[in-house]
Amino acid sequence: MEILHIDNESKGLFKAVDNGxxxxxxxxxxxxxxxxxIDHTEVRSxxxxxGVGKQMVLAAVEYARTQNVKILPLCPxxxxxxxxxxxxxxxx
Length: 92
Known about the structure:
This protein is an alpha+beta fold. A five-stranded mixed beta sheet has the order 1-2-3-4-5.
């Protein structure tokens, strides 16, 4: 599974790709220069329960850490991952 990141300055997404096929995507919007809002996470049904969504959230966390920005998870799925994973709360 490969997680691709696409950012177009005001919005962006993290896309999970498995052997050339999109398994899921997580979208976000920038809220200023130092914070982005995760607004939607979607995983194709055949990848449900395989950790694809969490991989995308973790990719967003790594990006936030390297760019020294914060994340506001409005998406219920992303919010749940943050609630269950204390070691990533530094980017909230």
